[in-house]
Amino acid sequence: MAGPLARTRELRHRFEAVAHQVRDRLSAHTWSVVQAALAAVLAWTIAGGLIQDHSPFFAPIAAVIALNASGGERGSNAIKLLTGVFIGIGAGELALVVGTGPTLTMAAGTLLAMIVAVAVNAERIVIGQAAASAILTTIFIADGSPGIDRLVDALLGAGVALVFSQLLFPARLVALLRRIEVDALTGMSGMLTGVAEALGEEGDVSSQQMVNRLGDLSGPMAELSRARESSMSTIRLSTIRWGDPQPVLDEDEIIERLILLAESCLFLCRSTAAMGAHERRELVPIVSGMADVLGILADDLSSREAREQAVEQALMTARMYGPGRPDDDQVTQATHLAVEMVATDIMLFAGIRFEEVEEVLQGELEDPLVPHPPGVPWLPWLRWRPRLDRFGRWRPGPPGSGPRRRWRSGPPR
Q1: What's its membrane topology (predicted)?
Q2: 173-361: which CATH number, 1.10.10.650, 3.40.920.10, 1.10.3720.10, 1.20.58.220?
């Protein structure tokens, strides 16, 4: 009887986990999907009213594809889309002029569009969009609309996407970066939890499991690196540059600390994998404790209380393992150093100054100050105000001008 009950509980837990993942995906992407649908309807309506007697299918397609990117990349995605559409429509029109049959015409237009896109060193999304535009141009020429109509449709669709992404619903880049940080912390916590479980097992299975766990962090770390790169380009190419980019720059520094924390966690896992069986079992509560600390941060990243609790528990876990002895072997010394590095990076990520971290580890400072975490501005250009020169003409202020750091939820560091 216990067997069926255990299987039922396991199935229920799996169903709850899947339902939780689906709910998280829907909550993260539903609004962007609704925006894309609204943009498609608006682009279709405008293009259909502007140019009579044709089917403006390029307009909604352009709007949806341009908005089908992460919030910080939707503007540049619209420009890439337009490049591909222009190449594809031009290649399709040329193929229609010289083509002898529908199949050969479509093949020639598609081939020419992709060759031109590759020749100009376009990205994969541009190459695919160029091919799709050429296919649509050669297939739907029966409606009699000239090529210029399709170009206007594409311009209208991309224009609607730019209005949605840059003016009406600009990307909350800090919030996007914060979600990526939460995912990375969750991944690190899961990796350390799995390593702690493997440390308590016997034989070569334990070592193999720990090695397999080291790859679990490659995805979150790659996502963090991509986020840092895209955040800088987003500041240059979006309406964020009109306002104060300092919140994004501050969050970029936090991501850099998180990358260092991930590297420390990897170092801890690799050093524990090289230790003997008895020493591994002693490290189970240490590694598990650090995993719990990262879980606390991931559960409520915007809470000062959560950061204080994480710092306190990280210190308690590190002191439980101790500083090590001079006669320890190299692997044991490396493991002590790894535990200290993880605790240090957790405190730095929580906002404690580096000078204070060293004093805390040496026991000279018992109650370090954990600052309030940075707030998340609702709109990227909320602090932007138009400025007039002495002739009464409008001119934007330089990037980063205007009041700084007033958006924070607490006192400055």
Answers
A1: Multi-pass membrane protein
A2: 1.20.58.220
